[in-house]
Amino acid sequence: QVQLVESGGGLVQAGVSLRLSCAASGSTFSNYVMGWFRQAPGKEREFVAAISCRAGSTYYADSVKGRFTISRDVAKNTVYLRMNSLKPEDTAVYYCAADTMHGSGLNPAMAVDPAMYESWGQGTQVTVSS
Fold first, then answer.
1. How many angstroms separate the CA atoms of 130 and 128, rounded?
2. Chain centroid to CA 60: how far?
3. What is the rounded CA–CA span in Å between residue 55 and residue 47?
4. Which has the closest alpha carbon to 111: 52, 44, 64?
5. Smallest Cα–Cα separation from 47: which of 2, 92, 114?
6. pLDDT attached to residue 60
7. Section 36-62 average pLDDT
8. Which of 67, 96, 98, 114 has the most crowded Cβ, counting Cβ within 10 A?
9. What DSSP string runs through 31-51?
10. DSSP string spanning 99-125?
11. How would you classify the pairing of strands 10-13 and 124-129?
């Protein structure tokens, strides 16, 4: 199983940027699809973005498209989530997740489903103040 460790969360003001990192270990990184999800208090876990670690193809939730960018560094086994123009409604615990069971191709219909991912990080808190 893949081990995932997130970092980079914090308390920021609206409008600024933040970059989250997710370091993976335990399997061949380029065989994964990696995703970022978030969960705000009292709400269900929500898909944010996903990337094929082999091809680099990406997919985003409409709520973050144009503001967030997911990327990966294969040499470092790390996935990033660059978050620009942060809004108070972006406040949540952010989780990275790995899907190593369904191939390295990015299928948007699968990427948005938390059940497709078998490994999860511990989460990192992002709080955006207005």
1. 7
2. 10
3. 20
4. 52
5. 114
6. 98
7. 96
8. 96
9. G-EEEEEEE-TTS--EEEEEE
10. E-SS-SS--HHHHT-GGG--EE---EE
11. parallel
